Amino acid sequence: MRFSKAIAVAVIAVIGLLGASSAHAQATVDKNRSYFSPDQQFGFGVNNRGGHIQYALGPAFHLGLNLSLDLYKDSSRSETYYDFGPYAKFLFSGDVIKPYAYAGVGVIQRNSGKATVSQDTINVQLPDPEIRIVLAFGAEHFFNQNVGIYGHVNLVDAKLSPAPSTTNFGLQGAAVGVEFFF
User: Fold this and answer.
1) CATH number at residue 53
2) CA nearest 182: which of 39, 31, 33, 57?
3) What is the pLDDT of residues 30-44, one digit of tens each?
4) Mean pLDDT per 10-residue section of the chain, whose length is 182 residues
5) What is the total count of domains within the chain?
6) Residues of the chain by 3-state class (helix, strand, coil), percent to 5
7) I need a labelling partner for 102 at 20 to 30 A (CA). Which of 35, 61, 62, 65 fits?
């Protein structure tokens, strides 16, 4: 009788162990961690405003540096300006198209000013550089881990300096481009 109880306890223990291990056999899949998202890769991109270099810290978070020559024109900017500054991009879960949030800080130098020549001296006066923050929302499609196309719409454009500071909400321009990772 004792032997049959010991066998019954052993069988129940084995069934319990097999059931517990099979319950964890199927792993959770995060769609941002799919094969088509770059992961720990450097890259560069070009868009309608210029270019950028970046690093994919993971499949859902990219850090980069804007290197833009922008031909955008409105009342606060000249026809051409240079935009240099860091940005961060967070990609949300998605299959074919991954939506993302974008935040960038830029030191912007407008391409307008005066140059005067007097005797042997050249004097160039450029406007003060502006510091701007841009918040955008967009989407990206990765063909594979090395190539993606993207587009976003700027929703907030805040000028921090020089005074006066301004913040514009709404459609503040857009960017469409392609990125290459290696």
Assistant:
1) 2.40.160.20
2) 39
3) 544 555 788 889 999
4) 59 58 50 68 89 91 85 54 86 88 85 75 79 92 91 89 79 89 92
5) 1
6) 15, 55, 30
7) 35
Q: Which residues of 2-27 are buried (b: 16+ CB within 10 A; e: fewer)?
A: eeeeeeeeeeeeeeeeeeeeeeeeee
Q: Which domain holds residue 100?
A: 34-181
Angstrom CA distances, 170 to 93, 104, 135, stand at: 25, 16, 11
Decide if 7 is inside a domain.
Answer: no
pTM of structure:
0.68
Lookup: tokens for 115: 């140059």
Residue 154 located in a structural domain: yes
Side chain identity at 50, as an amino acid letter?
G
Phi, psi of 5 (to 5 degrees): -70, -40
Residue 120 neighbours by CB under 8 Å, 6+ apart: none
pLDDT at 115: 76
149 residue type, one letter: I
- Is residue 177 situated within a structural domain? yes
Separation between Cα atoms, residue 133 and residue 121, nearest integer Å: 37
